Amino acid sequence: MNKSLLKDYVIKSDNKLLKPISTVNTQPITFVTKKSAEQYLEYKLADNKKMPCKTFNLSAWDCKTGGILADDPKSVCHGCYAKKSHYLIYRENHAPGYDRRMRSIDSIHWVDAIIKLIGDDKYFRWFASGDLQSVNMLNKIVQIAEQMPQTKFWLPTHEPKIVKGWLKEYNKPFPKNLIIRLSAVHVDKESKTPKSLQGHQNILTSTVHTIKPIGNRCIAEDQNGACESCRACWDTKVKNVSYKAH
Questions:
Q1: Any bridge partners for residue 47, and if so which?
Q2: 82 and 7 part of one domain
């Protein structure tokens, strides 16, 4: 590590420099600056110019349920945008970065580092590409939301079993500022919320349409693909958001 960055770290135990993220380390650490958190994680949060916030992304090729749905021509994951265009052209170039992000989730310092990187942002999106990997990962996302009540988090997912698994294991409601939208399986079809997940205020849905939207239509297509002032995806009053197929 560059010695000039040592001032950005506060080691609370024996004053030894934190080991690389690829090794197991249990030393408590405080990230004083965003730069120190980026240095530890070896990546930055993605800036999406068409969205009002940063995003944390994984490779679409690592999607669990989405990877299966991609083989179904009628599914919303068939022809996934995150497997086309520059995602596909530069797949090999992007692979090491996605791998670092995936590995970093297991770090005991990941939650604190991500909190530092989000900072004072009012909105955040999980997974502009990729999806939940495990109950443990979801629990870390919950911890982030719990510690950042001033930030609204939007989590779109094809993993209702992981959501159900978290509720069963922790037996408590999700933080009010974590909005989970269960994605529909097929284009032009409603997203069906399992009975075990019904009745939760912030477990909502999203769909994909070709012509007629189902419920609240995403207006990004009218705005050059940008959210602009719209925050429907983060709004618990909007039960379903319908996106135009692309």
A1: 54
A2: no
Asked if residue 171 and residue 54 are part of one domain, the reply reads: yes
pTM (predicted TM-score): 0.86
4-36 pLDDT, tens per residue? 443 444 433 333 444 444 444 556 788 999 999
Q: Are residues 85 and 177 in the same domain?
A: yes
The total of other beta-carbon atoms located within 10 Å of residue 49's CB is 6
Q: pLDDT tens digit string along 112-170?
A: 999 999 999 999 999 999 999 999 999 999 999 999 999 999 999 999 999 999 999 99
Q: Which CB contacts under 8 angstroms, 24+ apart, belong to 159-164?
A: 159/64, 159/65, 159/131, 159/132, 160/193, 160/194, 160/197, 162/132, 162/134, 162/135, 162/138, 163/132, 163/138, 163/197, 163/203, 164/194, 164/196, 164/197
In one-letter notation, the amino acid at residue 71 is: D
Burial 216-244, CB ≥16 within 10 A → b, else e: bbbebeeeeebbeebebbbeeebebbbbb
Token representation of residue 210:
């070709």
Which residues constitute the domain of residue 132?
42-244
Cβ neighbours, 10 Å, residue 66 = 24
Q: Which of 142, 139, 211 minimizes the C-alpha distance to 179?
A: 142
Tokens 């994951």 sit at which residue? 77
Q: Which two three-digit tokens encode residue 219?
A: 């207006």
Q: How far is CA 155 from CA 125, 150, 224, 237, in A?
A: 6, 16, 23, 16
